[in-house]
Amino acid sequence: MMKKKSLVLAAVMAACATSFAFATPQTQWNQGQWQLDLGAWNPKAEVDTSNFDDNQGNISTDSKWNFQGGLGYGLSDKWGLQYNYYGLKTGSNDKMEGTNGDEHEVNLVYSINKNFAAFAGWNRIKNSLKDSNYSQTNNIAQIGLIAKAPLAKNLDFYAKGALGTKKTALWEAGLGYSITPDLDISAGYRYVNTKLADKGDMVDEALATDDANISYKGFIAGLSYRFGGGHKEAAPAPEPVYTPEPTPAPVVETPVQKNDYYVESVHFGFDEDQPLPSERAKMDHFVQVAKANPNDTFKLVGNTDAKGSDAYNDDLSKRRVDNVAAYAESQGIPATQMQLDYKGKTDPVSTNDTDQGRADNRRVDIWQNH
Fold first, then answer.
1. How far is CA 33 from CA 182, 184, 196, 226, 340, in A?
2. Choices 3.40.1190.10, 3.30.1330.60, 3.40.50.20, 3.20.20.80: CATH for 260-369
3. What's the rounded Cα separation, in Å, for the pair 76 and 32?
4. What is the C-alpha to C-alpha distance for residues 123 and 70, in angstroms, rounded to an integer?
5. What whole-number distance in Å separates Cα of residue 256 and Cα of residue 10?
6. Where are the domains of the chain?
7. pLDDT tier at 11 (50, 70, 90 boundaries)?
8. What is the 8-class DSSP label of residue 164?
9. Class of domain 2-228
10. Which of 45, 165, 255, 261 is 20 to 30 A from 316 (CA-CA)?
């Protein structure tokens, strides 16, 4: 029957939309870090039966809550691998038979920057109708894009879209909230449209008079937890204790004048005291230069954008410097080789009137005294 076909296609649609339908979709990865996703969504299937010989117009199933879950792993700071599972069950009514399938999906995800990521993957979807023997397994290749933008502290807007085989297209949009640096929740709406039947196919007693698609849509909510990995974005770290630099012994000869030479600027997210994942290479470069010049001192100067009070930003710039210094110490740079300074919001390098200018000001400047 048409009901059965609609539900089958709904499952296919779910397949193409699964990439990041848990908590706020990830656009950045930390190497070696895992993400566990748990959630539920409440889909219903809908089909236009004008493409079948039992034309009844648009008909749909009742919605039903389904479990969804997934596991992601950061292969590097740019690449992640993710497995997702979706239940594809919907409720029967007097117009359309419910579905009882499931979906397994694997995606490779690439972080373009903190706001965008691209993904490509494979879905295996079993479409099964509750009250008949009709069952079909679909294999779908898909490619898509994820976008994320901050609305307020800890609150993001996200959207994603994808195209796949079997005439499949999807979109999803919603809000995500970060409870802690490692725990997120989200809520949104998800829509998928994909092929149900080719012209001439029979689904129970219904004959497809033309190619037919089905849509699968509903409210979605989830929770994500991250753990492991070598370093984490915005992960809290204990404030390191630094050994005071010893007072040099007096010398007879006139000391050689040293100058400060710029090395790097390590950048941070809004109201964050841990460097952005993309800044790891800069910190490693600083460590490399410091090891190559053990007799030089390196000055670390913390800065913030102009949002917030002077006292808050002074403390935030101090935490930023302390965490960069703690990373350098963990890589073998002695505390005596570093001088720490905190300037809060008093030394901007760009305007504080634009998002980009404020992002430029959230930094730790590193200077080599040589």
1. 11, 15, 38, 7, 30
2. 3.30.1330.60
3. 7
4. 13
5. 76
6. 2-228, 260-369
7. very low
8. E
9. mainly beta
10. 261
